[in-house]
Specification:
5 helices, 254 residues
């Protein structure tokens, strides 16, 4: 509801008045009504819809403001719009200090360009950039306190879900990355894609078109066959001499 700042004095032509003491209204106007003054005489003022409003019945409006509604007074659509505005503002605050987002994105895209490196080398560099990207985004949000970041990896179905939640509120956005059936899932690339989507950032094409591996790389989910002939999967934690390792054990990633 709009609130008015008023003065108790006689109005002038063109000014707005607020009815505060509707004594002779005869139910044609009431307290809280607002009118524009057309003419003034010794007894009162005239407006478009009324013959006369006595001077003691009104106050002259000299200012106004509309307080923001509480969350409990807002509609669902208004809450959604507010949430988007808050997220946009916090994203700006989160990245404006010390993190050149454009430069980083350009570096990632450059890795996807044409140069004399193997597909495996290109993939390894993009994975390393994705890992750095995620850590940088998380660090910036910790410093700015813009969002609480959550990331959940499901290596079995090749998906990652990221959440960016405004602290002490229910406002949050989500990002999901899902590996194509014929692609090799890498958790670091999945985290970077999902987190960028949750934060409303553009996902570099290099993340979406990363070359397929020719050997197991860190973060890749590889499948192998046990000596009993059963299929098993694990996420690669390190690679040495063509062998992919998880924990203290090693399995050839072919």
């Amino acid at each position: 509801m709009t609130k008015y700042k008023t003065e108790k004095r006689k109005a002038r032509v063109g000014e707005r008045i607020l009815i505060t003491d509707a004594e002779y209204a005869m139910e044609s106007y009431k307290n809280g009504d607002v009118f524009i003054v057309n003419s003034v005489d010794i007894n009162g003022v005239k407006v478009d819809t009324e013959p006369i409003i006595w001077h003691h019945e009104y106050e002259v409006i000299v200012g106004e403001h509309t307080p923001a509604p509480s969350l409990y007074e807002m509609s669902y659509d208004e809450l959604i719009a507010l949430g988007k505005d808050v997220m946009k503002t916090l994203r700006t605050l989160s990245y404006k200090n010390g993190y050149d987002q454009g430069r980083f994105d350009a570096e990632i895209e450059a890795l996807h360009g044409t140069y004399e490196k193997s597909d495996q080398q290109k993939r390894d560099e993009i994975v390393a950039k994705a890992k750095e990207d995620v850590e940088t985004l998380k660090m910036r949000n910790r410093l700015s306190k813009a969002f609480n970041i959550g990331i959940r990896v499901n290596a079995e179905n090749g998906s990652v879900e990221a959440t960016a939640k405004v602290p002490n509120s229910r406002i949050a956005s989500y990002g999901i990355a899902k590996c194509a059936p014929n692609d090799c899932f890498n958790e670091h690339i999945g985290k970077a894609i999902a987190l960028r989507r949750a934060l409303g950032l553009e996902v570099p094409a290099a993340y979406l078109n990363v070359p397929q591996p020719t050997e197991g790389g860190v973060g890749d989910v590889v499948e192998y066959t046990t000596y009993l002939g059963r299929k098993r999967k694990f996420t690669v934690e390190r690679v040495e001499n063509g062998r992919a390792y998880k924990g203290t054990g090693g399995i050839t990633s072919t």
